[in-house]
Amino acid sequence: MANKVEVKELLDAGVHFGHLTRRWNPNMAPYIYMERNGIHIINLYKSAAKMQEAGDALAKIAASGRKILFVATKKQAKEIVAEQAEKANMPYITERWPGGMLTNFVTIRKAVKKMASIDRMKKDGTFNSLSKKERLQVDRLRAKLEKNLGSIADMSRLPAALFVVDTTREHIAIKEAQKLNIPIFAMVDTNSDPREVDYLIPSNDDASKSISKVVSYVADSIVEGLSERKSEKSSKKKEEKASKEEKSDKAPKAKKEKAEVPSKDAEDKKAMKEAKKDVKLESKSETLDKAKSSNEEE
């Protein structure tokens, strides 16, 4: 469960400031509180509720062990998103969105592997055997790949969800995620279409203070989900260990009990032996009696 969102904190961060009224998207009408000086004001109570909902959903995804890709290429959001995504140990795109990042993921993975192969070349000494010009070309390629794809180097499969700052700017990423049915979480301003998003957070996506407030809350929710996953894993390990110990303790006791309690077959055999002994004794006594009587007669 994500932390509760305080409306006052959102107000202080300027999350309520929308775009100019002439640039609005009519589909955002349910989330607009009023108009002031030609600017739409976002209803912060609805923003807080939507943030809470998005935070809970992201925490569940993180707890399941899947990745959430952060996307923000606008200048005022780059550093904030990179910092918060690293804190949550999640992949992020803050440079130009590489076309086919999701729909052509295999090719993107090849580019990431190319980066890894260059690193291996530098380690095993192959890089030093190249000419100066070739080394420069390889370095430039490595720098370019690092800039565009370095933050997703650990993402070995498609993300479970996308978190986007400014859906209008990141429309290509939104379309790719929609094609693959990947859930989209986003900061949606009054000029954007909320129907493109699965979990929207009505908020000001232009001010760095507002972006920082929303993105940090999202990152904290993901961290909470990850810590929940760790605690579940550790508790499972403890339970397994305890059950193993119980089994090992019970095993020798069961053997002892087995040895102490004679089986039904053993009891039957014993009874048979005793019966045979009795029969033999009886037959002996009979022969002795007969011998005595014969002697007496003689």
Strand content: 5-15%
**Within the CATH hierarchy, at the fold level, what is the topology of the largest domain?**
Rossmann fold
Total count of domains: 2
Name the average pLDDT: 84
Outline the structure in words.
- The protein has helices at residues 7-13, 44-63, 75-87, 105-124, 132-149, 171-179, 208-260, 264-297; strands spanning 17-20, 32-36, 39-42, 68-71, 92-93, 161-165, 184-188, 199-202.
- The protein is built from 8 helices and 8 strands.
- With 298 residues, the protein is α/β, with parallel strands linked by helices.
- Strands 5-4-6-7-8 form a 5-stranded parallel sheet, sandwiched between helices. Strands 1-3-2 form a 3-stranded antiparallel sheet.
- It folds into 2 domains: 7-99 and 158-232, 3-Layer(aba) Sandwich (Rossmann fold); 103-155, Helix hairpin bin (Helix Hairpins).
- It is flat, with a radius of gyration of 38 Å.
- Helices cover 58% and strands 11% of the residues.
- α2 runs parallel beside α7, α3 packs parallel to α7 (208-260) and α4 crosses α5.
